[in-house]
Amino acid sequence: MRVLLVEDDPQLAAFVLKALGEVGAVADHAGDGREGLFLAAGGGYDVLILDRMLPKLDGLAILRTLRASGDSTPVLILSALGEVEDRVAGLRAGGDDYLVKPFAFSELHARLEALARRRVGEAPTTRLQVADLDMDLLAREVRRGGSLIPLQPREFRLLEYLMRHAGQVVTRTMLLEQVWDYHFDPQTNVIDVHISRLRAKIDKGHEQALLHTVRGAGYVLRP
Amino acid sequence: MHLGPILKSSSFRVALLYMALMGTSMVALLGFIHWSTAGYMARQLDATIEAEVQGLAEQYRNSGLVGLVSAVTLRVTRGTDGSGVYLLVGSDRAPLVGNLDRWPAAAPDPEGWIRFDLRGSGARGEEVHAARAKTFRLRGDLHLLVGRDVRDLEATLGLIRAALAWGAGLALALALMGGWLMSAGVLRRIEAITRTSREIMDGDLSRRVPRDGSGDDFDQLADALNRMLDRILALMDRVRQVADNIAHDLRTPLMRLRTRLEGLGAMADPGLQPALETAVADADELLGTFNALLRISRIEAGAHRGDLVPVDLAPLVRDLAELYEPLAADRGQTLRVAATAPLWVRGDRDLLFQALANLVDNAVKYTPPGGRVEVAARLDGEFARVRVSDSGPGIPAELRERVFERFFRADASRSTPGSGLGLSLVQAVAQSLGARIDLVDLDPGLAVTLSIPLAPAGDAAGPGSNL
């Protein structure tokens, strides 16, 4: 995964670059907006991380310029402004995801993976498969080892999201945003209970567990 | 402008009082005018009659009955202006001399004054005039009546009284109208001040009291209020800036600490993992508290004012119950939801969800196993009411006002998890929407009701572009 980080806080940038290196990503860094736009326009990145407030050229201006020139590289906007209007402005400008500072690196990493992957497999699909777990998106049926698993609509959406991102860590916040469609901060880990229920339905009675908890980060569905 | 607020306003009361005072002094003035004109004329008449009576009595004393009769006859025939009324009768009340055909039936007052109808003899045919006369008794059981036809005098008096009454009525009407205009003018200025203060209380701190530029005392009041608001705003900004700076400046090092701990986790030996994970969780809790604080300040500062959109509460409440149901079930509680009809309010979808989630979260957190939690949304007049009730221990009445304070925990030992910011955020969101929060003790249990004003009728039709 090739990543461009456009961030003016040198300490934050250093941490993110180091952490990205540790997870095997190749990352470039630009310290101001103009340099960021110059590097981004050069192309070749799987995903861009743009800070909203940058010297010389602000993050949203870079984003608009890229989108206007037909560049559709996934962009994650990073901002200290967490409120809804800011997020809406970011997404309207063509951003693909929005993350509020301060963030856990695991959250950033999970989102980058999701964005980079989205680019690869954009083709519409009617069938998802992980090991012997099989999801038919048209019939809205899930089978494991051939036997039908009855799921509630929300459980279906939850599993669908996990299967679409099989092998990637997805965070609780990502699930709330993508499966429940609310940007909010639960005081309790409400998602954990939903995951346990889903796990009971798909993993119970099977030798091989598919739905795993990644401590301090989130969940991953993998064989 | 409605009449209601005018009638209630203090300026109107002042105008009314002013009118009453003016009315009283006017009545006194007109009374004096009446006394000094009409009264004077009546007194003048009485004095004339009195003098004549004196004259005739003297005539009788000096010249006896013959002198009196000739004097009366003289007056009747060559009377002053033909308005004189005279009658001399004997002890049997039979007329001796005079221009009245009989003694009037009316009884005289103690001083001998009498008022009676004068019949007939006018040039214009059969007429009835009023007459005023004085009667008295002469030596030898003779009775004399001396009077005047008062038709002309009464007509004049009537004109004077009518003029005074019309003048008084007109003056009072003018006073009332003037008072009303004055009251309306003053009220308009006061209303502008009230409206501005309301807007400011609703969170729009940029509003200022309008001046009309005349430099009058209202303008001076407006200037003083505006300067006070500027000062308050400056102080608030400074406090918020300091609080935000603290939270912001601590967030960055905390985040670095967290990242570093996470990085260590990847390298450290497995024995250290649990300790590192706990440290990361602690850092997350601190970050969460700072974020919540900053968020509440932003909501209170009215940062969301601009992008309120129509939101249907019914699906939101159902989603909320669906999200929390497994958690409640896990704790052996039943969570029920009642939200059927669409309930359109103007708000921010995510913030509304956050506020209601905080309420449900609290209910689930504090209700013992086997208890129940209910979320109900219904329409009630101009409001959408969302009620979150539980069968938990409730909140003692004396603490109910304080639960919205930042970092307040009903649990004195602070042993249950939580930041003590959940309800502060609910209150901030409620304030930003003009909504009210009510806490009701269910004994056992607590019901928190959020009353959110409905969206204006035109809004509900909109699709509600909730991004």
Descriptive account of the structure:
The complex is a heterodimer of chains A (223) and B (467). Chain A is of the alpha/beta class and 223 residues long. Chain A has two domains: 2-120, Rossmann fold (3-Layer(aba) Sandwich); 127-221, Orthogonal Bundle (Arc Repressor Mutant, subunit A), CATH 1.10.10.10. In chain A, 42% of the residues lie in helices and 22% in strands. Chain A has helices at 10-22, 33-42, 59-68, 84-92, 105-120, 153-164, 172-180, 190-203; strands at residues 2-6, 26-30, 47-51, 75-79, 97-100, 127-130, 133-136, 141-144, 147-149, 170-171, 211-214, 218-221. A five-stranded parallel beta sheet of chain A has the order 2-1-3-4-5, with helices on both faces. In chain A, strand 3, helix 3 and strand 4 (75-79) form a beta-alpha-beta unit. In chain A, helix 2 runs parallel beside helix 3 (59-68) and helix 6 (153-164) packs across helix 7 (172-180). Chain A starts with a strand and ends with a strand. Chain B is of the alpha+beta class and 467 residues long. Chain B has three domains: 7-155, Beta-Lactamase; 217-300, Helix Hairpins; 306-460, Histidine kinase-like ATPase, C-terminal domain (Heat Shock Protein 90, 2-Layer Sandwich), CATH 3.30.565. Chain B contains nine helices and twelve strands. In chain B, the strands form three sheets. Chain B has a five-stranded antiparallel beta sheet with strand order 2-1-5-4-3. In chain B, strands 7-9-10-12-11 form a five-stranded mixed beta sheet, covered by helices on one side. Chain B has a two-stranded antiparallel ribbon with strand order 6-8. In chain B, a hairpin with a 4-residue loop joins strand 11 (436-441) and strand 12. In chain B, helix 2 runs antiparallel to helix 3 (151-201), helix 5 (273-300) packs parallel to helix 8 and helix 6 runs parallel beside helix 7. The longest helix of chain B is centred in the first third of the chain and has 68 residues, at 10-77. The radius of gyration of chain B is 47 Å and the shape is rod-shaped.
